[in-house]
Amino acid sequence: MEQTFDTVLDGHERARLGARAAEAARRLAGEDIAAVALTWVDVSGITRTKTVPVARLEHAATWGVGMSPTFDVFLLDDSAVSGRHVGGPVGDLRLHPDLDRLVPLAALPGWAHAPANRFTQDGAVHPLDGRALLRRETGRLAAGGWTIKTAFEIEWAVSTTAEEFTPACHGPAYGMTRISELAGYLRALLTALERTGVSVDQLHPEYAAGQYELSVAAEDPVGAADTAVLVRETIRAVTLEHGMHATFSPKVVAGSVGNGAHVHISLWREDTGDGPANAMAGGAGPCGMTDAGQAFAAGILDHLPALLAIGAPSVASYLRLVPSHWAGAFACWGLENREAALRFVTGAQGERDRAANLEVKCFDAAANPYLVLAALLAAGRAGLDAGRTLPDPVGVDPAGMPEEERAARGVRPLPASLAEAVAAFEQDAVLEDALGEAVTDTVAAVRRGEIALFDGAAPEEIAAATRWRH
């Protein structure tokens, strides 16, 4: 049964899940798996977990595992705030493993992983369950005949210590030297991901010291968010196994380039006579987009300031999101423009019908990937519904444009602080309607809590406090 916000776990569904889990448990035990980590991502973007022995997987699938709802208002330092819908020591919810995504963890022998669906004790979907929220937004597009293909790029930096950041390699940006320096580690990582069922497209050294980036194949939205979590935890485990430490923080070292988590997304029409068709290619719109592809992209562009409260959710995010650092600090779009918040990627001639997509560059890995995609789909759907059109593309670094030209072309700087992003988020009726009151209020409360936590802190202090949390 596909989970929606109307889903209720009745006796028949519980029995079905229990039977599937019992079969899965027998298989895992035969592979010498001892435990299953059930994970979810909180509003601060931290992956939280509860673990069950394999022998308890059937019970967990049937009845869930208890967890306090208050983790949704935890800050990155594990302090907590309170919102109108959650907070304090009272209450419980149930974590149910998604058996379709249950997989042994090659990087953690003896362990398996399953993302958790979150329900109330009465069997209703919990209002802050990001996976259910993303399924709902995917379903709303599907009702109009649309599907989404999407993937996250994963950037991380490797350190030899877990106190200060000490780069584990010293070669130049994008240099083969960095592959040679950590060839055994990178090979082990690729092997672990392959054995875990992740389809890796490419791996390369990135710009900052000790930094790498990994790209994976596009999937449906929920699958893409699940894969983003799985990839990061695999990277973390393999890095530790090699005596090093991985950080996904938006700003590892103050003054240096940070880690992004760019989102690649394309809109596909399902009800064509010739099979699925990519709305980002083959049309008469800008750069070959169809009218629908353009409208979807324009919807995202319209809502970018508010979307930052979801996709760039930390105070540290705004140490990264600065002009002329390929972070996408301006609300504009452009063909292959890495300084635009929305980079349009056509792909090579001959594969554009498959490869054309939109890259959202202003997001980072402090974000909850389920909320990110749910919010992006809602913004894109609003553009579709309104038949929005894109402004002219920007073909230069917007920071180098005269201010009056930027104003005339509607090229706006994105919020320069988390407080500005939260203010835009709370005024965005489209996102509030899509995410619901409980999520909207909780996101705002957590963001304000982090703003207060770092009030008056220097960039170096913010980077140090954030470095090992995500």
Distinctive features:
470 residues; alpha+beta; Ubiquitin-like (UB roll); Creatine Kinase, Chain A, domain 2; 10-stranded mixed sheet; 6-stranded mixed sheet; 16 helices; 37% helix; ATP binding; Gln_synt_N_sf; ATP-binding
CATH homologous superfamily classification of the largest domain: Glutamine synthetase/guanido kinase, catalytic domain
Q: Globular, elongated, flat, extended or rod-shaped: what is the shape?
A: globular
**What is the number of helical segments per DSSP (H or I, 4+ residues)?**
16
User: Strand pairing plus helix content: what structural class?
Assistant: alpha+beta
Report the mean per-residue pLDDT as an integer. 96
Please report the distance between the alpha carbons of the first and last residues: 32 Å
CATH architecture assignment of the largest domain: 2-Layer Sandwich
In percent, how helical is the residue content? 25-40%
Q: Stretches where pLDDT falls below 50 for ≥5 residues?
A: none
Count of beta strands: 16
- Main sheet overview: 10 strands, mixed
Oligomer: single chain
How many domains, as an integer?
2
CATH class of the largest domain: Alpha Beta
Radius of gyration equals 22 Å
- Classify the beta-strand content into a percent band: 15-25%
Domain GS beta-grasp: 31-123
Organism: Actinomadura verrucosospora
Protein name: Glutamine synthetase/guanido kinase
GO molecular function: ATP binding; glutamine synthetase activity; kinase activity
